[in-house]
């Protein structure tokens, strides 16, 4: 039967399409057999160094699906099949499950009503729904990754991918903005009216994975018992931290600080004491390193420290001049706020145009 299906695919499609279908089928089968590898496959295609827009698509008539989409749908279908066919399989429930389900259902209903009412076109709506649907990875993870072995493998592979992206970002920083080797945004850093010609801002597809990896490694180093043989964990942590810095994304920097504060608040007893002690130790080490670099800096190190300081200062000042993306966000929110207030109850739907296009719509706006 399998041989007949393979022959049918090869005979029915062009070679490139046949290879795509067969390759996608193999990946989906692996994901169904080992769900944790399916999750890693989705990360590889959406959150590493692969340009999402370059992923091959499989047409389904009303739209198209990428390999990552197929993996996600296969994992969600596996949850349904196992819940119906296995008596011992029970759907996992966490405090986040219900609000996330409500958010996704609300988004779908709002978008469907907008399309039916003629206020929203189908194509932009589907594009936004595809992005929001990846929130359902949460359910695939809590329902299909259930034993320690699966979780350990998922964590190791995820951190490995994050480290790979961070290494590529470091290499891009060394090469500078004139030699671009990464997809995404690679540009000379601009903050306020300052241009840091030797500092490269790097925003690859895997930037969010680097952020998550850094937070995970920070918590791991602060909470688990450490030995001298764990030096590589510190090296990996430093590499991921540098990757977070090179995004020059202030939201990421604030997110790291909030994650650490939340961990300090949630930790209790011995774990809380260990976390606080190691956080203070890490803070002291980072401060000493900055003082040492400031005392005898190279030109590139001096510019990097100055660039980070200038970027971080805008978080305190709240404004960075006429070209500030912070000010852009204020204008953006002034357009969005009226549409968040009732009526209507369901808003405008995903993908709706809620403001006119202005000079703010430039590719560097973030």
Task: Describe this entry's structure for a reader.
66% of the residues lie in helices and 6% in strands. It has 14 helices and four strands. The strands form two sheets. The chain has a two-stranded antiparallel sheet with strand order 1-2. Strands 3-4 form a two-stranded antiparallel ribbon. Strand 3 (185-191) and strand 4 form a beta hairpin. The longest helix is centred in the middle third of the chain and has 28 residues, at 148-175. The termini are far apart.
Describe the secondary structure blueprint for this structure.
Elements: H1 2-12, H2 15-33, H3 35-46, E1 57-59, E2 64-66, H4 67-85, H5 97-116, H6 122-133, H7 137-144, H8 148-175, E3 185-191, E4 194-203, H9 207-223, H10 231-247, H11 250-266, H12 269-295, H13 299-317, H14 325-340
Antiparallel strand pairs: 1-2, 3-4
Helix pairs in contact: 1-2, 2-3, 2-4, 3-4, 3-8, 4-7, 5-6, 8-9, 8-10, 9-10, 9-11, 9-12
């Amino acid at each position: 039967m399998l041989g007949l299906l393979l022959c049918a695919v090869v005979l029915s499609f062009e070679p490139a399409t046949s290879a795509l279908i067969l390759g996608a089928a193999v990946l989906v089968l692996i994901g169904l057999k080992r769900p944790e590898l399916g999750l890693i496959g989705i990360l590889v295609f959406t959150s590493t160094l692969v340009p999402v827009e370059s992923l091959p698509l499989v047409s389904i008539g009303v739209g198209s699906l990428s390999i990552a989409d197929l993996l996600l749908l296969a994992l969600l279908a596996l949850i349904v099949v196992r819940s119906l066919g296995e008596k011992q399989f029970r759907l996992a429930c966490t405090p986040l499950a219900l609000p996330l389900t409500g958010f996704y259902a609300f988004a779908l209903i709002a978008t469907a009503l907008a399309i039916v009412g003629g206020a929203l076109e189908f194509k932009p709506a589907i594009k936004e729904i595809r992005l929001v649907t990846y929130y359902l990875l949460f359910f695939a993870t809590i329902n299909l990754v259930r034993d320690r072995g699966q979780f350990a493998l998922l964590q190791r592979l995820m951190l490995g991918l994050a480290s790979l992206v961070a290494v590529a970002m470091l290499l891009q920083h060394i090469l500078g903005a004139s030699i671009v080797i990464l997809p995404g945004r690679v540009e000379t850093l601009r903050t306020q009216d300052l241009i840091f010609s030797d500092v490269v801002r790097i925003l690859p597809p895997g930037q969010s994975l680097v952020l998550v990896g850094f937070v995970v490694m920070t918590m791991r180093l602060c909470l688990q018992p450490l030995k001298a043989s764990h030096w590589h964990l510190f090296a990996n942590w430093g590499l991921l931290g540098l990757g977070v810095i090179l995004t020059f994304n202030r939201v990421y920097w604030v997110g790291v600080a909030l994650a650490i504060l939340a961990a300090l608040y949630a930790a209790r007893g011995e774990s809380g004491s260990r976390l606080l002690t190691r956080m203070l130790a890490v803070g002291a080490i980072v401060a000493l390193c900055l003082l040492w670099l400031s005392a005898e800096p190279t030109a590139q190190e001096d510019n990097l420290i100055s660039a980070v300081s200038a970027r971080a200062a805008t978080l305190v000042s709240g404004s960075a001049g006429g070209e500030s993306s912070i000010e852009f966000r204020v204008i953006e929110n002034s357009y969005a706020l009226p549409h968040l207030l009732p009526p209507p109850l369901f808003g405008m739907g995903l993908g709706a145009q809620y403001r006119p296009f202005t000079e703010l719509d430039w590719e560097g706006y973030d």
